[in-house]
Amino acid sequence: KDPKVLEKYLNAVYHGTEKHDLDDTLRKLRCLYDVEHYMEALDSMVDILIRLSQYPTIDIPSILKMLVIETKGEEERSEKAKEWVEHCISNKAMDQITMQCLFEALVECDADLRQKCIGIFLNHNDNFDDFRRLPLTPFSYHWSGSAVPLYSSWIKLLEGILPLLTGLRFIKHKKHVQNQIERLQQMIIDE
């Protein structure tokens, strides 16, 4: 309940833990889903981590990813994670850094959740510059064999976003997504 305790803990962990041990230590923060006011606790945690980081859009997404990716055997926590993500987007859609971090963490989540999150974001923030900063597909990725299935899944996701982008206020948004689709289609041809 006391945000100062969480801040002291995060400060000690973030600055006092070797980088290779940090992921495991921060993964334990999923226990925040078990507290009564988990949304407020997670909101505070994100704010604190962004303040602590010199490069939040680089450092923080991997931490958030551990909190939002579905985890086998933790179905209740995973459901609460989805609720918190929607809450966070609704309440912080105008906060570019938080949104960049959160959407980067979401790139490995299922397409339906990502599309829903993009819709929530657009309902609260229709600014094109903010939208284009959101990572809709991963910045880095790996695969074995052909990359075509990977690119195709991204195209499908992006095509699922297009119906959200109707009307004049989303014309730039739509063109941006269409350009990404065309780029991926060209990458499939080049494959």
Share of residues in helices: 55-70%
The proportion of strand residues reads under 5%
Mean pLDDT: 89
The major β-sheet equals: none
- Morphology: globular
The whole-angstrom Rg is 18 Å
Q: What is the count of β-strands?
A: 0
Q: What are the secondary-structure elements, in order, as H or E?
A: HHHHHHHHHH
Number of helices: 10
Structural class of the helix and strand makeup? mainly alpha
What is the end-to-end distance?
53 Å
Stretches where pLDDT is under 50 for at least 5 consecutive residues are none
Report on the structure:
By secondary structure, this protein is mainly α. It starts with a helix and ends with a helix. Helix 3 packs antiparallel against helix 4. Helix content is 70%, strand content 0%. The longest helix is centred in the C-terminal third of the chain and has 20 residues.
Entry keywords:
mainly alpha
Layout of secondary structure:
Layout: H1 3-16, H2 19-27, H3 38-52, H4 56-68, H5 75-92, H6 96-106, H7 111-124, H8 128-132, H9 148-161, H10 171-190
Brief write-up:
This protein has 191 residues and is mostly helical. It is built from 10 helices and no strands. The protein has helices at 3-16, 19-27, 38-52, 56-68, 75-92, 96-106, 111-124, 128-132, 148-161, 171-190.
